């Protein structure tokens, strides 16, 4: 359709180089950048989120960075609402929006719409389900889901913790299976856009090296000091969505629940590294899932992506 305006989506796991790629593309033409990152929305959380520096943001302005405090909640539905308004505003200026980030749920919500009759997140219920998983094992939690939502039990695996938590959360809030509610609700698909989807999917060993290097730099430049400042400024608890971000949860536990010994510090750093690798693994899984339903171009290296996108948009 001729009235469908373009939206460029640049996706990839953490530390894959997607932000640098977006900034280079920004310089090639008439673009504006929109962040698709559930951690970058928080003010004062800079080092642990690998947020672009103030100088970088001045040179490459990003929408949807630093928009709420770490005490607030930001949902996928809110992202779709905010991003859609921004996209329309950018198109109205005759520019093309580039959405860049690694929060695949946000991309999925934008590409496919959301079921509007599903309840918002209840973090107390989520914490209860997580505690049950830790105490009784996730097989027990998965069995509880299968009992109340057999269809979800067929779709999910025991390792799909976030999906299991969400499905049980919805059931506890509504008394109905999430699969039933999803089937009943027509999705609000933003037909007025044409999405051009690109994904950076580096070799996993290479990505693990990049993640390890990034974390080393974070510790060196004062990530723990940043978390200490957050504790002083805000009434933080470990069940806040902001503090569930990888790195922050581990640092918060270390600062508030340990004797801060070198042994515990090393254990915290190892846990943060493991959690970040697990995040990357989930991001790969999300991307593979999205690729089953949407047209994508994928790149193994940043150089490969730079050359191709320069030809497309330079």
UniProtKB/TrEMBL annotation:
Assigned EC number: 2.5.1.75
GO biological process, one term: tRNA modification
Enzyme class at the top of the EC tree: transferase
Protein name: tRNA dimethylallyltransferase
Annotated spans, Interaction with substrate tRNA: 37-40, 162-166
Family indicated by similarity: Belongs to the IPP transferase family.
HAMAP family per UniProt: IPP_trans (MF_00185)
Cofactors, names only: Mg(2+)
Recorded name of the encoding gene: miaA
Catalytic activity field: adenosine(37) in tRNA + dimethylallyl diphosphate = N(6)-dimethylallyladenosine(37) in tRNA + diphosphate
Function: Catalyzes the transfer of a dimethylallyl group onto the adenine at position 37 in tRNAs that read codons beginning with uridine, leading to the formation of N6-(dimethylallyl)adenosine (i(6)A).
Domain of life per record: Bacteria
Binding site for ATP: 12-19
tRNA processing keyword on record: yes
SUPFAM superfamilies: P-loop containing nucleoside triphosphate hydrolases
Site description Interaction with substrate tRNA, residues in chain: 103, 126
Binding annotation for substrate: 14-19
Species, as recorded: Acinetobacter tandoii DSM 14970 = CIP 107469
Keywords carried by this UniProt record: ATP-binding, Magnesium, Nucleotide-binding, Transferase, tRNA processing
MF term (GO), any: tRNA dimethylallyltransferase activity
Keyword field contains Membrane: no
Subunit organization: Monomer.
């Amino acid at each position: 359709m001729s009235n469908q305006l373009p939206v460029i989506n640049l996706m990839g796991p953490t530390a894959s180089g997607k932000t640098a790629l977006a900034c280079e593309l920004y310089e090639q033409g008439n673009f504006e950048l929109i962040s698709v990152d559930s951690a970058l929305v928080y003010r004062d959380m800079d080092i642990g989120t690998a947020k672009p520096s103030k100088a970088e943001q001045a040179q490459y302005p990003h929408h949807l960075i630093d928009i709420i405090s770490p005490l607030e909640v930001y949902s996928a539905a809110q992202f779709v609402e905010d991003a859609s308004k921004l996209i329309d505003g950018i198109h109205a200026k005759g520019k093309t929006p580039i959405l860049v980030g690694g929060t695949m749920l946000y991309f999925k919500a934008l590409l496919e719409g959301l079921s509007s009759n599903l309840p918002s997140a209840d973090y107390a219920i989520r914490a209860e389900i997580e505690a049950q998983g830790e105490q009784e094992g996730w097989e027990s939690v998965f069995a509880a889901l299968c009992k109340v939502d057999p269809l979800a039990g067929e779709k999910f695996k025991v390792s799909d913790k976030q999906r299991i938590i969400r499905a049980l959360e919805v059931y506890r809030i509504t008394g109905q299976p999430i699969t039933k509610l999803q089937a009943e609700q027509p999705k609000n698909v933003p037909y007025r856009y044409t999405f051009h989807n690109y994904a950076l999917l580096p070799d996993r060993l290479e990505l693990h090296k990049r993640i390890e290097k990034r974390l080393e730099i974070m510790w060196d430049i004062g990530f723990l000091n940043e978390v200490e400042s957050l504790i002083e400024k805000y009434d933080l608890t470990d069940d806040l969505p902001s503090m569930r971000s990888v790195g922050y949860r581990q640092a918060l536990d270390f600062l508030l629940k340990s004797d801060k010994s070198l042994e515990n510090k090393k254990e915290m750093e190892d846990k943060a590294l493991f959690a970040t690798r697990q995040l990357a693994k989930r991001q790969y899984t999300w991307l593979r899932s999205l690729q089953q339903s949407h047209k994508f171009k994928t790149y193994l290296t940043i150089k490969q992506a730079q050359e191709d996108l320069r030809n497309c948009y330079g």
